[in-house]
Amino acid sequence: MSSTVKRKQFSLEEKKNIISEVDKGLKKGEVAKKYGISPSTLSTILKDRESILKQVQTSVFDPSRKRMRKAQFEDVDTAVYKWFQDVRSRNVPLTGPLIREKALEFAKMLEVENFQASVGWLNRFRERYGVLSKCISGEASDVPMNSVNEWRNGEVAALIKKYNPDDVFNADEAGVFFQLEPKRTLAQKGDKCVGGKASKQRITVLFCCNKSGTEKRKFLIIGKSAKPRCFKNCKSLPCIYKFNKKAWMTQIIFNDWLIDFDTEMEKKKRKILLLIDNCTPYNAPPKLDNIRVEYFPPNCTAVLQPLDQGIIRAVKSRYRTFLLRQILCDLEKNIQRKCNVKEAIEWICGAWDDISQSTITNWWKHATTTKDANSVSEVAEYDESNTHDIQQSELEQIWSTAKKKTSLPDDVNLEDYLGADDVSTCYELTEVDIVQSIKQR
């Protein structure tokens, strides 16, 4: 009498766990027995290792799902999920009713008939994309230290240890008001760079470096003009240059940068880990063969991200030194002029080159080490201990001279000057953008 054995169906997450068990050194026979599968099934899973791990990494679906069935109203689901990612990347709390209301708006914009944003639809949407209840109802906090320490001690931290420090990278962008004079500092504070003078003199810079401090990659500059006049007769730049009307980081620019990075790593036969924040341009990376992308938890980058904590600040401090030096030189010669984009690029390059390997490794160590959950002020304390070096002293001296020569009021200080361009640099999606991207597929 024959018996029919029901084939066991595994989710991507379960397949990943099976692969992990074998990688840890457990015998294949023991793994097969543990998961109740035949040796041939185990061999098939291991043979598809790269494909499975890549699917876990890039799939929009929850890895715990066994079936990857798509939605009946796929365009509406896709639009809502893009909107959801954008809103959550800014740590805005969401509720179920709000998501359902937004789904109806997208259905109308996409001219989809017979769509009902019912509670059942919401539950299926949440299941399809692995949206947890806590993600759509929790309140934002300044720095959730529990999330910080969970990240430092969790899966990503364990993953970092599997890579050589040379192969663990962090990328982050920053705005730079490249012409900023001390007297304009107060006017710039809080400017969102949507328009006006602040927008005209801002560029966005994407920095990337590895954990060991041995590799500071060529930075990416995003300006407003395709061909600034100052680029005339310039054969090459020490950076990658891109542009758009608002000098913002966009998903297209970031993904192009990622693809080039991945191609370079493939040529060098390197597999690397890239840690980034979860802002809108970063949250839909292309399929990559040599770069594994992992995200910092929302609202935690000020504590967890090495570049955001102190490395970029050190670059900006050095850049301001170059700029103030030029401003003072022009004052002595009675010359009135503005720094141009080409000069700004050269000075940023010089500032980036001046960042020492020890500065980078110190910030990486500080970012990945578990701290006292009751102390968030450690970041500032650590910053003070690492920036008061020879370069910082030089900046303070130049600032003191500039303050006297430009008759700055007492309420303008060096900290204001250094932090005046801490503004949004990422393009925020609109509903129209989302709908257009879906219609153009």
From TrEMBL:
One of its GO terms (molecular function) is DNA binding. It is found in: Nucleus. InterPro entries: CenT-Element_Derived, DDE_SF_endonuclease_dom, Homeodomain-like_sf, HTH_CenpB_DNA-bd_dom, HTH_Psq. GO terms for cellular component: nucleus. The keyword Thylakoid does not apply. Its main location: nucleus. This is Tigger transposable element-derived protein 4. The lineage of its organism: Eukaryota, Metazoa, Ecdysozoa, Arthropoda, Hexapoda.
